[in-house]
AMP-binding protein
Amino acid sequence: MATSNPHESKVWLAAYAPGVPAEIDEVVETLPDMIEASVKTHGKAPALEFFGAVTSYRDLGEQIERAAEGLCRLGVAKGDRVALILPNCPQHVVAFYAVLRLGAIVVEHNPLYTPRELRHQFEDHEAKFAIVWDKVYDVVDDFPQDVRPEQIVAVDMTEAFPWSKRVALRLPVAKAREARAKLTAKPRAKHPVSWDSLVGGRRLPRRTPRPSVDDIALLQYTSGTTGSPKGAILTHGNLRANAMQGRAWVPGLREGEETFYGVLPLFHAYGMTLCLTFAMSIGARLVLFPTFDVSLVSEAAKKSPPTFLPAVPPIYDQLSRASAQGSIDLTSVRFAISGAMSLPVATVERWEEATGGLLVEGYGMTETSPVALGNPIGPSRRPGTVGVPFPSTEIRVVDPDDPSVDVEAGEPGELLIRGPQVFQGYWRRPGESADSLLEGGWVRSGDIVTVAPDGFVTIVDRLKELIITGGFNVSPTEVEETLQQHPDVADAAVVALPRRDGGEIVAAAVVLRPGATIDVNTLRDFCRTRLAAYKVPKRVFVVEDLPRSLIGKVLRREVRSRLLGEA
């Protein structure tokens, strides 16, 4: 019987753009090694830009060393977990590399999470140290004593603004007060440890122990293929390999001359790799945005036109519309890579008309650091697919009920991935780690795919019932448990419904308790107090009952079919 074992023949190599190697070199540097090499090579070149304020690579290296020394004085040591709860800002970049320089472990968090969501993660990773946006300082400070970190560092990101903008924010007028309130807040604590005091000292002594390639660098929380959020364990070697793979995939990049736009959140695996590691590894200028806003991007583009833009389809659509209206010039963008959700062909066409550059789709998961496949940067790309495996990456397509068995060539099956970017398991979850990481280093994706004879991969379904909205993963179980906490809700099922632009929305079917009535908006408001905004159901349907299997499990696929009929 013919089976699809593309990892044995690697037929996809023929589709690679000219100059892309089949394999990357062995990973021998850690992330601190990588950033120090960029500082040495590109010292005077701009590393970061934030609302017009520019930080050179030399200054970035200096700040990392001083921040590492400050963290060392606080007691951070090799192997400690250090939680980061920060928007995109220069302090985030410095903190990330300073923690890693000490051999400590970064734990990234979404600063817009609710207190309940953040507490759940802190209970899991038990970080003793946290570096947090001052607007969420009080949330962490209010954690129970057995969960609260021993040291919390408050970051006022406006301190990284240009002097003129800092002055404008302090003007005694309503507009300035409103803008400042969105960006910073004074913690209730009398004497919180400030970021400025942390980085105001001396450089880290050279004798300080350094991490190794196999040491854990990051715990990145994800819903994985099933269940509630858990920390994916990623080493220096995993993350450095993925940056190297990204660099190899785009042979036309110019060392020290590219301008990346950081519109993706750095706390997300996609933004972290494309901006925090990949961009920094090639000496690029990284223009940071605390949130995506077309007007902010348009203003930044006047000074520093982007050449490389990693983003998600809704961002490309918004920018394409702005370009068509004449409010932004995008012709400087040569390369754009879309991920985290399906990329409509129409989005590709609009973007390439606006820029004259290429927009290609990639595929990954947090467990692969995250990028594993991509469309070639060139004529062999194939819109509508997620492309072919990255250099040094192999795939298999298997029977999801028995992943040791490869399916017949061309037939749908579960995608397995193997490569140097594959994670080491889930933090303190040996059972779930064993379920996801198979013998031989293969990781289960939970996605059902088909592979064309030439190796191009198309996603056709998801075994995992995660919802991907705006590039973020939403666990249906987590949202269902929140809905079930409402006193009028007896049961709930949460599924994805399609959007016209090819994305997904969170939708809920709820069964009310006998005699109860409920206003849908009130129920959504209830969810907002317990869940991040992107997890709150956009549509809520009140139903009489939920379809179940013989053992009582809610059949989400049937729920989805019913809701599609009502939507």
Notes: The chain has a mean pLDDT of 93.
